[in-house]
Design brief:
By secondary structure, the protein is of the alpha/beta class. The chain has six helices and four strands, in the order αβαβαβαβαα. Strands 2-1-3-4 form a four-stranded parallel beta sheet, with helices on both faces. Helix 3 packs across helix 4 and helix 5 crosses helix 6.
Length: 185
Amino acid sequence: MAGKTTATKSKSAKAKRLKSTISEEKPLLFISHDTRDAEIAKAFGELIHRSSSGVIQTFRSSDTEGVSGIPYGDEWYRHITQRLDQASDIVALLTPQSNERPWILYECGYGKGRKDITVFGLAFGVSMSKIAGPFKELQNSDDSKTSLVKLVKELLKRNTDLEAIDDLIQQHVDEFKEKIDRLVP
């Protein structure tokens, strides 16, 4: 009986390591945002998760549900920089309240300078002509359905071998826009 318990524990530990290895192999999209835009970041993370069939993981520091945020007791700065080091891409959510926030600029600059990570600016309720700082140098996306579909397809192409199914992505973007239109004036 003790042998089975040890074998079961060994199999369980091996399964956990395998699961950990698999999740580490998935691309990670870092969603840089102002904490006041936590609901937008959550909805965008869900859009990416659904559109990639769970292949692309997302990180958003404001996640308090324990899914993709900073665990309680962790050193938040170290955790954020580790996630930036693991990220395949960064999407910076630019809203009227976050457009000029220094922390978003820091996260994007850290990722770009340290690993040359591609940064995508995604503007919600901000005119593209009002985008601040170094984001002016990027080809940013607005929050129109057409732009969102294009951005999702670009992220899928960069991070997965999945074939983008236009109707499915459009459906996910439509659902996302319904949520966002209630959150952004």
